[in-house]
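go over this record:
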Amino acid sequence: MLSSLLAAETGHSVATSPLTAAIVAPFVGAAVVALIPKGRAELHRLVALLFAVGTGAITLWLLAAFDTNDAGFQFEMRRAWITDFGISWHLGIDGISLFLVVLSGLLFPLAIVAVAPHHDPKPYYAWLLILQGGCIGVFCALDLFLFFVMFEIVLVPMYFLIGGWGYAERVYAALKFFLYTAFGSALLLAALIALALAHGRQTGNLSFAYTDLIGLELGQTESRWLFAAFALAFAIKVPIFPFHTWLPDAHVEAPTAGSVLLAGVLLKLGTYGLLRFNLSLFPEVSVEAVPIMATLAVIGIVYGAVVAIVQPDLKKLVAYSSVSHLGFIVLGIFAFTSAGLQGAVIQNINHGLTTGALFLLVGMLYERRHTKKIAEFGGIGRPMPIFAGLFLFATFASIGLPALNGFVGEFLVLIGAFPTVPVHAIIAASGVVLAAIYLLWAYERVFTGEPDKAENKALIDVSGREIALMAPLVVLIVLLGVYPNILLDRTAPSTEAVLDRIEASTDFVVPAPGRLADVFIASEEDGE
C-alpha cells in the first residue's frame, strides 16, 4: 500500500532503499507474528527474532557502507507521498543518526531474547517489532511530517508494553508516560505545521522537507516560539529536568525488554531531536538558549545522581542514573564545540549500551528473586560470581572508568563544554563522582559480604544463554572505550557541518579549542 502512494522523485526506489527496508521489515514482522495462530506460541518469539535480526543485519550493512568523509546525508531517497501538502517519503542518515540506527538494530534482538513474557507472547512480540520500526523511522526521516508519524508510532507500543506486561503499578506508569509524551507531541505537530506554512508563504509551495526548512527566514519572535515548541517536545522525551518525573515510574514498572529499549533507544529520540532540528532550524535562538539549556542539563546531572543515591529500589536507582547521564548529552549538544557535539552523539550510544546492560542484569536478578529492593539482597556475589563480575563491569562503564566506553563520551562533553560554559562544566564534573557513589554503594550492599537470607544463598549464577546475551554489550563497551575512532571518524564530518551552519547563520564563534582536532593538536604542541 505504501509503495502505491509513492511516486518517484530522486534516489533509490522503495524496493531497493536500505533505509526503507530497515523501517518496513519490523512492521512486516509484526504483521506476520499477528497472523500466527495463538496456539503456536513457540513460533511467535522465533519469527520476531528473525525479523529483528534481519533488521539488525541491514543496519550493520549501512555501517559498513557508510562513507566516513561525507558530511551530508547518505543512502538518501525521496519520493512524493501526499503531494498536495508537500509531504514525501524522504529518508537519509548521516554521522549523527547512523549509530542510533545501528543501536536500534542491536538492542531489539537482545530485548526479544532477554526475558520471555509471562503471558500473551503474540501481541508482546508484535509490539516490540512495531517499536523497532518506529524508532529506526525517527532516525532516518528527513521529512518532518514523516518524522512526526514515526515519533508518534513509538508511543503506542511502549504504552502497551508497560501497561500489559509491566509490574504492579504498570497502568499508572503507562498512562503517565503516554500523557507526558503526547503533550510534547502536540506542541511538535503545531510547530512543524507552522514551519511548513512559513515555507509556503515564502516560496508558494508547502514543504515538510528538513532540507527545505533549514533555509527559512523567520522573524525573531516566531523563531523563539517555534524553538520553544520543538525544545519542549524533545525535553519531555529525553527527559530533561523538570520534565523527568514520568521516567522513573516507566522504568520501574516496565518489563525488562521495555526498560532496556526505553533507556537504550527511546530516550535518544529526544536528544537526537534537539541536535538535528533545534540547532539546525533555529540556530540564532539555539545560541540564545545556551544558558537555559546548559543550566537545566547540569541540574539534571546533579539532581538525578543525588536522588539515585537514596533509592531503595535497584531498578529505580538505574532509572535515576539515566536522568543524570542524559544531562551530559544535553550539555554537550549546547556546548557548541566539536568535542561537545561529538561527545553528545557518542554518549547517546554509550548510554544505550551501559544502561541497557544494567537493566538486563537487573531483569535477570528479578527473575530469580522477584524483588528489586536493595535491602532484600546482600552477599549474592558468593553464589553468583560471574553475574557479580558482569554487574561490576557494567557499573564501571556507567561510572566512566578509562578504557571503557562511558569515559570517552563524558570526557568529550566536559572538555567541549568548558570553553563555552565553564561553570556548568565544573559542576557537571561532580556528576562523575556522584555516579561512583551511588553505583558502587549499591554494588556493595547487593553483592559483597556473606548472604544472610536463604533465598540469596540459593541463587543460581548466570546461564550460558545469559552470558551470550551480555557478550555483545561487553565487547562493544570495551571496543568503544579502547578505540573510539570507530565512532569519531563517522560523527566528525556531520557535527562539524552543524557548527559551520551555526557560525554561518549567527554571530556565534566557536571558542578555541572548538574543533576536536584542535584539542589534540594543542595537546601535542604542549607535549613538545
